[in-house]
Automatic annotation (TrEMBL):
<keyword id="KW-0812">Transmembrane</keyword>
<feature type="domain" description="Cardiolipin synthase N-terminal">
    <location>
        <begin position="10"/>
        <end position="52"/>
    </location>
</feature>
<dbReference type="GO" id="GO:0005886">
    <property type="term" value="C:plasma membrane"/>
</dbReference>
<keyword id="KW-1003">Cell membrane</keyword>
<keyword id="KW-1133">Transmembrane helix</keyword>
<dbReference type="InterPro" id="IPR027379">
    <property type="entry name" value="CLS_N"/>
</dbReference>
<feature type="transmembrane region" description="Helical">
    <location>
        <begin position="31"/>
        <end position="51"/>
    </location>
</feature>
<protein>
    <submittedName>
        <fullName>PLD nuclease N-terminal domain-containing protein</fullName>
    </submittedName>
</protein>
<dbReference type="Pfam" id="PF13396">
    <property type="entry name" value="PLDc_N"/>
</dbReference>
<keyword id="KW-0472">Membrane</keyword>
Amino acid sequence: MFSLLILTVILWVWAFVDISRSRFQNNSLTFIWIAIILLFPVLGSIIYFQLGPKLKKEPRTFQPEFSNRTT
């Protein structure tokens, strides 16, 4: 029973950390996900990990253009 409680807390904290580090398509989605996690800790965390990645922005990629063209 105690191990189930520990796993639940780890899932809950992991969801909060992931939400705080994520960049969503809309900034209000961050607050909506936090509210869902607070209202329904276990179910909200599971739903977030299923649906959350689909709503995130694409990660930035660093693509410098080094051109030595002089005109």
